[in-house]
């Protein structure tokens, strides 16, 4: 189920709005990730629930229906190479 969003790409979304995960999402990683929000032609907000954005570095991380392992590995891997995420774990 690889869908092309990989760690190396590190697509940054500096200007992207981030919507917090609903409070029903209990996993700790949701404190560090939100969903990207875009606007359609009418200026209406649209939330893409197939990917998440790291609030620390704004990298896009794929999110597959309830599976947060991509997000956890993002926090883990990124902590190894930068201090940016050190306070997250
Ligand atoms: Zn990050």
TrEMBL record:
Ranges of residues in domain BED-type: 24-89
Molecular function, one GO term: zinc ion binding
Database matches in PROSITE patterns: ZF_BED (PS50808)
Keywords: Metal-binding, Zinc, Zinc-finger
Superkingdom to which the source organism belongs: Eukaryota
InterPro entries attached to this UniProt entry: Znf_BED (IPR003656), Znf_C2H2_sf (IPR036236)
Pfam families named among the record's database cross-references: zf-BED
SUPFAM superfamilies (alphabetical): beta-beta-alpha zinc fingers (SSF57667)
Record protein name field: Zinc finger BED domain containing protein 1
Species of provenance: Dissostichus eleginoides
């Amino acid at each position: 189920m690889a869908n092309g969003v990989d760690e190396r790409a590190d697509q940054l979304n500096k200007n992207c709005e981030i919507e917090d995960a609903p409070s029903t999402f209990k996993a700790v990683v949701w404190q560090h990730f939100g969903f990207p929000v875009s606007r359609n032609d009418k200026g209406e907000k649209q939330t893409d629930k197939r990917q998440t954005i790291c609030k620390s570095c704004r990298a896009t991380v794929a999110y597959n229906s309830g599976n947060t392992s991509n997000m956890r590995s993002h926090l883990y891997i990124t902590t190894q190479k930068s201090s940016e995420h050190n306070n997250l774990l």
